[in-house]
Write a structure and sequence with these properties.
mainly alpha, binds s-citryldethia Coenzyme A, citrate synthase activity, transferase
Length: 394
């Protein structure tokens, strides 16, 4: 092939596409969805409203959001055959492993999603089905981990309320979910909804670029999000903070461990490929953390450790030089824990929030008729070698 290949491992300085969905400014710490600042959306909007904004490009009118919620609430059931998949997993199978399998399996019950040239209506049906069924899948994964009976969705409940009803509801009694908990989760889902071309979104786009269906593309994104360097960090942060607490809470010791090149320990929840300033989401989540724990009357000792760690790192030359600040994952786990979720469910909650972002980016790629993704490489292997019969090999 003529021409030069520019090597950019990890795509640190490569634009993979054009997009009108999310804007990030890493130096200024700015994040906007379809032009709306994340601070305003987190304060004023609902998650389902933000999902509509990301997917269809505009803030919905009352009629549009009612229709959107109505369509979703009538697609929340899973095909009863899917229960066999939940039963097949060992009860301690990681929720992210279950989620990527179960989301991919949705194509088996949605023939319209396999049409290589779907109509707009068929595509929109697949979008609605995925938005509607993901909360049911996530809550049933949680119930399965407890050996508890599945709680079915209810048409009359709004998106986040329905998810919490299925997750913390019981067959034998009415469980009232604290509105503080609903509001906190709604805000967290908004803050996770999209983030331009991060690892998992780039994966969704790459898989979608080959013509793969929406469910398979999002399932691939879930796999990418699972990694501890990406969405899996929110689980790793809590495990790290627990480790520090159980080790006596000596944050200086752990800061020095994170700086030690011979030690592969990293301060999970710190640093970001794009934000070289505070992650705007982390600022909002940190405030929400104080607010939620106070309202719920929870005193979680690891919150104090997190704040001590943050304070120490923000004044340590190693972190300052490398512009390492708390990212979205640093405080989110503390809130998820306060809302009653086990640590293993945290990254699945990240996926639930990111779903509308993945969907909107997949649709944009298809609408823009982008070519199949196929990067090149710099070859560093052997030049030419002749085949040697096995009897002649030393
Ligand atoms: C998410 O991309 C997105 O938008 C992702 C996300 C989204 O919404 O989709 O924002 C969600 O994934 C947030 C990030 C969650 N991950 C973590 O918290 C894991 C810990 N963070 C790091 O592993 C790291 O900061 C990354 C993965 C987030 C970014 O990695 P980069 O950009 O490849 O940076 P790097 O690994 O090359 O680090 C640069 C330097 C290195 O030191 P030097 O070799 O220059 O001496 O900074 C150091 C690193 O050793 N460093 C850290 C560190 N992060 C980077 N040192 C200690 N602790 C850390 N957390």
């Amino acid at each position: 092939q003529s021409g030069y290949i520019t090597l950019d491992t990890g795509f640190k300085n490569t634009g993979a596409t054009t997009s009108s969905i999310t804007f990030l400014d890493g130096e200024q710490g700015i994040l906007k969805y379809r032009g709306y600042p994340i601070e305003q959306l987190a304060e004023k909007a609902s998650f389902i409203e933000v999902a509509y904004l990301l997917i269809y490009g505009e803030l919905p009118t009352q009629a549009q959001i009612d229709d959107f919620q109505y369509k979703i609430s009538h697609q929340t059931l899973l095909h009863e055959d899917m229960k066999k998949f939940f039963d097949a997993f060992p009860h301690n199978a990681h929720p992210m492993g279950q989620l990527c399998s179960l989301v991919s399996s949705l194509s088996a019950f949605s023939p319209e999603s396999l049409n290589p040239n779907p109509t707009k209506e068929e595509t929109n049906l697949a979008v609605i089905k995925l938005l509607a069924k993901m909360p049911t899948i996530v809550s049933w994964i949680y119930k399965g981990s407890l050996g508890a009976p599945f709680i079915y969705p209810q048409h009359k409940l709004k998106y986040v309320n329905n998810f919490m009803h299925m997750t913390f509801g019981r067959l034998t009694e009415e469980v009232i979910i604290d509105p503080v908990v609903i509001d906190a989760l709604d805000k967290l889902l908004i803050l996770h909804a999209d983030h331009e071309q991060n690892c998992s979104t780039s994966t969704v786009r790459m898989v979608g670029s080959s013509g793969s269906n929406l469910y398979a593309s999002v399932s691939a994104g879930i796999s990418a999000l699972w990694g501890p360097l990406h969405g899996g960090a929110n689980q790793a942060v809590i495990e790290m903070l627990e480790r520090i607490k159980n080790d006596g809470g000596d944050t200086e010791k752990w800061i020095n461990k994170a700086k030690d090149k011979d030690d592969d320990f990293r301060l999970m929840g710190f640093g970001h490929r794009v934000y070289k300033n505070f992650d705007p989401r982390a600022k909002i989540i940190k405030r929400a953390c104080d607010n939620v724990l106070e309202k719920l009357g929870i005193n979680d000792p690891i919150l104090e450790i997190a704040k001590k760690l943050e304070e120490a790192a923000l004044h340590d030359p190693y972190f300052v030089e490398r512009k390492l600040y708390p990212n979205v994952d640093f405080y989110s786990g503390i809130i998820y824990r306060a809302l009653g979720f086990p640590t293993e469910m945290f990254t699945v909650l990240f996926a639930l929030g990111r779903l509308p972002g993945w969907i909107s980016q997949w649709l944009e790629l298809r609408d823009n008729k982008e070519p199949i993704g196929r990067p090149r490489q710099i070859y560093t292997g052997e030049t030419r070698r002749e085949y040697v019969e096995i009897s002649q090999r030393g």
